[in-house]
Amino acid sequence: MHLHKYEKYWLGAGIVGLIVFLIILGFGAFYLGTHPQSHGEIIDPENIEANDAFKPENRGLTKVDEGRYVLNIVASAFNYDLGTDESGAPIKNIEIPAGSKVLVQATTPDVIHGLNFAGTNINMMVEPGYVSTMEVELNNPGEYTLVCNEYCGVGHHLMYGSLEVVE
Ligand code: CUA
Prior knowledge:
alpha+beta; Immunoglobulin-like; six-stranded mixed β-sheet; five-stranded mixed β-sheet; 1 helix; 11 strands; 16% helix; elongated; binds dinuclear copper ion; metal-binding; copper; membrane; transmembrane
């Protein structure tokens, strides 16, 4: 069998490309321990309240320091629990001053949901059995809609909320 000169070059380039790709992948996955936001911590989906972050009184937005917040969210079919106001009514709109750092922690007791504040970097999968976490800095004032972008059942489109970054 005879390989043309250029065929050999391209074959070689392909093999080198594959090796470089696998090295980068292995470095990111094993050496740096990169993993999806949804695999930071495990949780019992039947008893999410055993985790302090998801006790009813700790859901929603909490200021932990100057310019620092924690936002705990329970996604379930078909609702986002963003905490309650003083009268006990569910909060649907979260307000955060621009420039704040926010640690978002989310979980679900039932099926896979999405958690995306459209227009921000907050975009995670929420899986039963895991706590999804992500820390972001919110610098751009505006209103961002919270949507579920994993199809979770007949009420999928009913899952909503919003985040307002205020000056
Ligand atoms: Cu929850 Cu789609």
